[in-house]
Design goal:
Strand content: 5-15%
CATH topology of the largest domain: Rossmann fold
Strand order of the largest sheet: 5-4-3-6-7-8-9
Largest sheet: 7 strands, parallel
Radius of gyration: 27 Å
Number of strands: 14
Helix content: 25-40%
Structural class: alpha/beta
Number of helices: 16
CATH class of the largest domain: Alpha Beta
CATH architecture of the largest domain: 3-Layer(aba) Sandwich
Length: 456
Amino acid sequence: MKNFTCQCCGQCCKWDGFVKATEEEMNAAAKLLGISLDEFIQTYTKLSQDRQSLIFTDRKDGACVFLDNNNRCKIYAARPWQCRTFPHEWDVPPEYQKLCPGHRLAEAANALEEASALPFIHVLGHPALPMDIENAPGDAQVLNCHNFCLMLSQLGLPYIYYGCPGSKLPPGGAFVDCGKPTGKWSYRNKWHQIYNKRLSSRLKKYAHLDGTPEIIASIYGAAQSDIETFGLPVIEPMVGYDHCWAPYRVFPSYAHQHTIYAQQPDFTAKNRFFDTVIPHFLDDTQYWSSDHPQNYLLFIGRNAPGKGLPIAQQAAEKAGLELKVVHNGCFGAAKTELLANARAVLMPTIYVEPFGYVAIEAQMCGTPIITTDWGAFAETVLHGLTGFRCRTQAEFVAAIGKTQRLDRNFIRDYALNHFSIKKIAPKYKAYFDFVWNVHKNGGYYADAAFRDETFL
């Protein structure tokens, strides 16, 4: 396979099957081990099932007898032709291709060459957790990493995800292991420095740097701020935090964009022309509506003062309805069932909300959302149509009463048309093209530097 580089993962040495060896190959391996050919045959081989050749024996776990505990071949310099030609002469089954990181990296690199007009995305992921939404379902950044890669997959864009071991990628991407964390991350502590050195070394290895469109996507803000970029443009997609650093940033709401601009006036003055606003997005297949919603209210979110739980409790009590409160431990289908069956979801966040996933999840289930009237809610909740934005207890209580008048089918359709991957993905593709254009062709003065199709 073109562009294949072995990652020394040992997976191909653990697959079902066998390795044939000629007498010449066995003799070379025996010399490498410092034993006679007869001793090699007696110790490391057995007769194949068809009794036509000798094959290597297996370890107790089924792996090749020559695979050591560090996934290295003990006879690598004298390995047989069958091993030397992997995967170039092999017809590797799809289920095994997924297990081989070298194969996936080569596929991504080949895809770049075959479609050089498509941007190749280097995704810098979570610095402390694997991208595995099943094992870390409550971590918003893990969800962001997963959704971003899922979007790239649906766009057909080749990408590499640089992350912690154990990450589970959507189709179409290749994984580069950045090693286990050496400690808890904080800005420029020891783990920050080690992590950025690891990222830089791996970027150096896998960046093409041949003039074709190639972009770095930093999904964890300042954790990746000291990397070596090798002259490539860096985008911070899905910015929901306050430690931005890249010259190209995608904010989930204008409310959050303006908040950050006020906090970083000097940095903003140099870079604001190249930022954009694209909402966060969800995999809509994970959300559904209920034909028979129940008569309870729902609060779902962290147990933190800024989430406004007392406001929700007082409004529910005044309205005479049960308020179900969920702080953690509810994910996947169970969470969707709670959202879909609620009469309404209360999200009275007190701080300036950067986005608010729960508001989108509720609407994607067709459930009305009742929020405060600031932050991203002014952009994500259609007042009087998909929910209500309130400023007083009287308004919260009145909103609860009016939710049954809202069209739940309209609410779900609104969410699907504004916050699903299908609707958001083209916006990101247009922004990738915009970033590469202004990066290569004069910045502000680049010809055809359009962020979206509105200007075409």
